[in-house]
Structures are given as C-alpha cells and as structure tokens.
C-alpha cells in the first residue's frame, strides 16, 4: 500500500480546534497550567517539522516499504538467494565450462563481474575456487537429474522476488498458471545468464579498446591512467548490468505495467545504490568475521548479510517507483479475465438489486389500475435478481449464494411483494 503525500496544512492558531490541531496541541490549549502553556510554541514547531518530513518522498518511500513488510520480504529473498546462487553457478559453469576454458579473457572478466556483484563468493580467498568451477561436469542421467534440480532451485528465487516486488506495490499474487510462471522464470534466468556473458564480452572488448587508444598516445597499459580507465569501465558495466536486471525484475518478472519514466528513475537509483554497495563489500565480510562465534561460518554469514542488503535495495527502489506512480495517479493493477468477469457479475447483482427495490416501491405505491403492470415488472426484476445471484454463486469457489441485500420482508407473499 503506497503512502500518499499529506496535504500541506499550516499549523492553525492557538485558539483553533480545527482538524489540523493535534491532540497534544489541543490539550495544551485547554490547559490552565502556565508551565504547560510554555510548551505550546515548541510543540507547534515540532508538529510543523513532522508534517514537513511526512511530505518528503523519501519518508513516504520508507513508510510504504515498512507497511508492506519490506524487511521480512527481503529476509526471505536473501535466504532463498543463498541457495539459488550456488545452484546457478553450478548450472552455468557446467554447461558453458568448455567454451569458457578456451576463452581465458572472457572467463576472467566473468569471474570479476560475479566477484564484484557477490564479494567473497569466487576467486582468490573466496568460498569457491575458480579452478573448481572449470572442473564441473554433469553428464549422463544422474547429471541430468542434478542439473534439473539445481535449475529449479535457481529459478525459485525469481518466484520469491516476483511476489515480494508485487507486495511492495500492493498488488495481488500473479494469477497465471504455476507451470507457465516456471517456464517464464526459466526463460528469464537464461536471459540473465546470457546478459552476464554479454557483459563479460563487453568488458573485455572495451578494455582492449581503451588499451589500444592509450597505446596510440604512447601511454603504457600498466600506467595509472590505464588502471583508472579499466576501473571506470568495470564500474560502468556493473551499473548497466544492474540497471537492466532491476528494470527487468520490476516490469517483466513481476508483470507490473510501470510507465517507462518511473521505471527508469527507480531502476537507476537501485543500480547506483547496488554499485555503491560493492565499494563496502570488504567491510561487510570483515564485519561478519569479527565475531569469534561466527568465525567458522564467516563467509556464509557475510553472504547472507550481503544478499539481505541487495534485496533491501531492490525492494526500496521498487517502493520508490510505487510512490512515484501513486503520486501521478497511475493505476498499475490490470484485472485478469476472471477478475473482470467476477466484477461484471457483481455489478449485475448490484443493478438487479436496485431495479428490484424500485419495482417493489413502485408496486407498493401503485394504484389499483396500474398494479397489474407493476406486479409484472416486479416479477421480472425478481427473476433477474435471482439469476444474478445464481451466476455469482456458480462462479464462487464455495458455491454459496450471496446474502440478499435488496429485499426485506413486507408481510406479503414472495420476496418484496406478491409474485
């Protein structure tokens, strides 16, 4: 549920008891104690500051995040991602390991991108040795079954992420069939994997291009300028990968028709925040290893903390978009065919109830000459009302008839009058 911006109400004068006066201000106004009266001005100033803070977008973004249990959702996402990332690594490197072995530069760039996104996972001093990744192989029926299980674990994180993002937008669960969702998640997982390879190739090509340009100007590839250029390229690649990934999560994975302007702004904020978070990656891992009780599991604890921070940023950026869309009055929820049919049935019942009330009142107030015609209209209205109730009951999961709200006992035969 998004938080609309509060109205810009000025603080009323001391003698006012209008709707803008807080209970504390009213209590101070009604008090005869001189000491309490001295609190009147500070309280009004605090109220003015509080209302100003509540009008700020950042406050409303955080409030919307908390109202939709953002921290709880992020915790669930981070726990699932710990298993999904290991499964994804096994799947990717077992399938593409042979090709990566023959392309050392692309393999090194891919490892650097993953290490920048998830510090402490692979590489020197990481949880997984890079040599072990190239030795992965899943062959035969046993390997196929293991590959399917790992792939299922990897794409399950996408399902958790979709539901978490939709919850931040206060939208209902995805109504598509379960198997269809899994097929779409599999396709998105493959797209994200290909995007990682594409970013690795782009990183290698751009680094070589910069090195060639520096060579034309007589600058050594090991110089400070070359190092700075390589770092800038790596940061740019990380920002672009995060931007495309987050934007795809919000609009494609979560199936939310976010306007492109709002999507670009929120995804860019999340992408920059994730890239900035990578600067503190070493501090996060070290903070987890300082506790002697957690020394044995320092890497796992550090990864959990890291994943939790990433998931919070993803959901906070989603909350930013949700508030932006709410401020512009854009309706994001598009009813499915089943929801539209249910709304039509309910609308039909409301109209039938109104017509039945009108027909009953007309019959009760009709003269003896017009009573036969009124009775006929009442019977037709009652049949339509009964048909609308039955149609709604048939579509209900329980099959229960809706409670009658349009009629009342009149002491005559039938519902609402003699039928």
UniProtKB/TrEMBL annotation:
It holds the Pfam family Virul_fac_BrkB. Residues 1-22, 391-419 are annotated as: Disordered. It comes from the Bacteria. Keywords: Cell membrane, Membrane, Transmembrane, Transmembrane helix. The chain crosses the membrane at residues 82-100, 138-160, 183-205, 225-250, 262-285, 297-325. It is found in: Cell membrane. Residues 397-412 have a biased composition (Low complexity). Residues 1-10 have a biased composition (Basic and acidic residues). One of its GO terms (cellular component) is plasma membrane. It is a multi-pass membrane protein. InterPro entries: Virul_fac_BrkB (IPR017039). The keyword Cell division does not apply. The keyword Membrane applies. PANTHER family: INNER MEMBRANE PROTEIN YHJD. This is Membrane protein. It comes from Okibacterium fritillariae.
